[in-house]
Task: inverse folding
């Protein structure tokens, strides 16, 4: 039986953005204007970085709405401006949603797009608005170095080291990985410049190692791999009708890409190309005793058994090629096993997705 590694059993926490106060007037349209979210942001410099204080208000003074979509560019998360949040009717600056996005000095702009929904007099109303804010005029200069870490679903971490625009000398650095005796990379960054991206490969075990960036014997940044926003484990859905067994795989936006083969105990196998951010489906003709086994390369996952739903007429019986003891019949627990198994196998095989 396939076992899920310990790391996949633990939910990965996603840190929420800090909420800060913002004293800014929100200019709303006339009562006749269309329902829409009002998105605005103010940029400011912080030591070594810059930030945007975002505000999302409601165009309507008498009707609350719901947030149905949020996109931060570059990617970010928020505990307040998020899908499912209530967009309160606008009664003043206290009746708005606020959040803060922190950005690296190499990033020159940030965009927030918000989708919202209202229900007025039985009619559904949807609208999308966005705003883009640029780095403060003249840029945000600093004498301190900055390091960015970008995680992907393979377990790799991409590191970029930047030297401050007001630094007085070149920045010499080394990248160390916990458990390694020697640096995996080193270099020199000119004043106001950034290094080329450096990929730190995933560790072999379940627990990602700590990555440290050191300059002249002093640690300037550290990081441990975390699951990218949107997750890495594919969602599996199994639909069983009187005539068919259908299996749908939905891969997260940052998920791994790989070929997934479904082999039935009778009939021809089908190959599904699992691509990031996409949903794919295979369908098999139902028959008594049908069992379909998913596999990635030579590694097999839990088999999926078709079970005749109630109310169906008799289904022709096909010769059984083997016992289906332990086969998954589409229960939620079984689907989690398959999804986690797909991710674990694909990651172990070091299958990479294209950017």
Result:
């Amino acid at each position: 039986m396939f076992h899920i590694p310990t790391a996949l059993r633990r939910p990965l926490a996603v840190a929420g953005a800090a909420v800060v106060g913002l004293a800014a007037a929100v200019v709303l349209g006339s009562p006749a204007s269309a329902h829409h979210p009002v998105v605005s942001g103010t940029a400011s410099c912080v030591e070594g970085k810059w930030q945007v204080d975002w505000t999302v208000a409601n165009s309507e003074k008498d009707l609350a709405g719901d947030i149905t979509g949020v996109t931060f560019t570059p990617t970010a998360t928020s505990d307040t401006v998020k899908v499912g949040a209530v967009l309160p009717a606008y009664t003043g600056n206290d009746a708005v949603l606020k959040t803060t996005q922190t950005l690296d000095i190499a990033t020159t702009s940030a965009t927030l797009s918000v989708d919202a929904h209202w229900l007025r007099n039985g009619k559904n109303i949807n609208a999308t608005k966005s705003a883009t804010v640029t780095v403060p005029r003249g840029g945000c200069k600093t004498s301190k170095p900055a390091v960015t870490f970008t995680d992907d679903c393979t377990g790799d971490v991409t590191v970029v080291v930047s030297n401050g625009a007001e630094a007085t000398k070149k920045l010499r650095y080394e990248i160390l990985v916990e458990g390694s005796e020697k640096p995996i990379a080193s270099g020199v960054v000119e004043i106001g410049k950034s290094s080329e991206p450096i990929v730190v490969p995933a560790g072999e075990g379940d627990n990602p190692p700590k990555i440290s960036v050191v300059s002249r014997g002093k640690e300037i940044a550290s990081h441990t791999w975390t699951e990218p926003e949107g997750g890495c484990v594919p969602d599996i859905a199994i639909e069983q009708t009187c005539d068919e067994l259908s299996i749908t795989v939905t891969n997260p936006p940052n998920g791994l890409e790989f070929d997934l083969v479904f082999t039935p105990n009778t009939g021809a196998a089908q190959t599904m190309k699992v691509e990031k951010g996409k949903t794919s489906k295979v369908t098999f003709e139902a028959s008594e005793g049908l069992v379909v086994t998913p596999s990635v390369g030579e590694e097999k996952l839990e088999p999926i058994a078709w079970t005749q739903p109630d109310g169906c007429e008799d289904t022709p019986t096909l010769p059984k090629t083997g016992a289906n003891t332990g086969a998954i019949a589409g229960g939620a627990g079984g689907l989690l096993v398959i999804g986690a198994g797909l991710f674990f196998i694909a990651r172990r095989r070091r299958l990479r997705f294209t950017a």
Remarks:
- The chain has three domains: 37-134, 145-224, 235-309+330-351.
- Helices lie at 6-9, 332-348.
- The mean pLDDT is 80.
